[in-house]
Backbone:
């Protein structure tokens, strides 16, 4: 009997639904929320309202795109957290109602574990290489920066994490400081390609072990820009590309310094990166080059699986196949 799973993701500002059949993704629909751009960041109340408007049409589109009958769905998986409470509640309520009405299994999925498992999403007629257990995963997003030792699908140990702000937030806040619209991370990546990463130097935080800190860097960048603009009102415009390249270089250097330490001390040579910041071209290029030089196997998810999406909410599918 076919195992057809409906996945629901609503942890922040993307409403997503996906259909997985016998381990393969058939559809993955995502509704973005443009309303937050005017505020320079996600507004929780607006996000939850948008989820309420989007959840039913998104699920309907996912089912239709997959070409399956909703009565044939075997189970439903949804994001239980972490995330915005109001946003999570929308996905949680829909999933529970759908499971109850259709009398199918329901399972909660940890959002961060789902990002790690995005490396195991399968599509028909496409060969995708995935990391072998155990592997280290650098999880970097707008709200999280972690180094995770992954022993199995359900055995993950956080060995390092940010003690304050996340790398993704640092990208966005630094972008806002120089007048770039939200979300600013992709724009910093874009302009950095034309800039010199060594033009400006910013201090690195001193944090023990594998943990991260980015709040000090954000503050230092803010004061640096403030002082330079006082001297030259056109400073940002004249140095935009170099500023983007320099701050991106600094954030990547901070991330990889701790990851390299974890690689050295654990002896693990299977390295994966997940989360929204894994789409950053500077991070990808730098880590791929390091991997080649150090004989490491480095894995990044496809760009469409780097941001929040329901295809990664497929833990239930693994459970089904493990028990069949």
Residues:
């Amino acid at each position: 009997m076919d195992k057809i799973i409906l996945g629901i993701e609503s942890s922040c500002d993307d409403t997503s639904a996906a259909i997985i059949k016998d381990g393969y993704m058939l559809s993955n629909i995502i509704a973005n929320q443009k309303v937050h751009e005017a505020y320079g960041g996600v507004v929780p109340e607006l996000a939850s309202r948008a989820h309420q408007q989007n959840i039913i049409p998104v699920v309907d589109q996912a089912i239709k795109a997959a070409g399956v009958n909703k009565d044939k769905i075997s189970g439903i998986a949804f994001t239980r957290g972490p995330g915005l409470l109001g946003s999570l509640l929308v996905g949680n309520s829909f999933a529970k109602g759908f499971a109850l009405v259709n009398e199918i299994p329901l399972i909660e999925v940890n959002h961060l574990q789902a990002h790690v498992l995005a490396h195991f999403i399968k599509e028909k007629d496409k060969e995708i290489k995935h990391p072998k257990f155990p592997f280290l995963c650098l999880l970097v997003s707008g709200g999280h920066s972690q180094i995770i030792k992954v022993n199995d699908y359900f055995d993950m140990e956080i060995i390092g994490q940010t003690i304050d702000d996340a790398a993704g937030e640092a990208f966005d806040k630094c972008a806002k400081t120089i007048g770039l619209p939200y979300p600013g991370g992709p724009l910093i990546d874009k302009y950095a390609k034309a800039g010199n990463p060594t033009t400006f130097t910013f201090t690195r935080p001193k944090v023990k072990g594998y943990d991260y800190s980015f709040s000090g860097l954000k503050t230092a960048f803010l004061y640096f820009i403030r002082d330079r603009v006082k001297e030259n009102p056109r400073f940002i415009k004249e140095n935009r590309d170099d500023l983007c390249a320099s701050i991106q270089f600094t954030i990547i250097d901070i991330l990889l310094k701790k990851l390299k330490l974890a690689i050295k001390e654990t002896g693990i040579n299977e390295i994966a990166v997940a989360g929204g910041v894994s789409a950053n071209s500077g991070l990808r290029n730098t880590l791929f080059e390091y991997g080649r030089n150090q004989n490491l196997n480095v894995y990044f998810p496809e760009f469409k699986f780097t941001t929040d999406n329901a295809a990664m909410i497929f833990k239930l599918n693994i459970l089904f196949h493990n028990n069949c």
The mean pLDDT is 93. Strands lie at 4-9, 15-21, 24-31, 75-81, 106-110, 135-140, 145-152, 155-161, 270-274, 297-299. The chain has two domains: 4-128+306-322, 135-301.
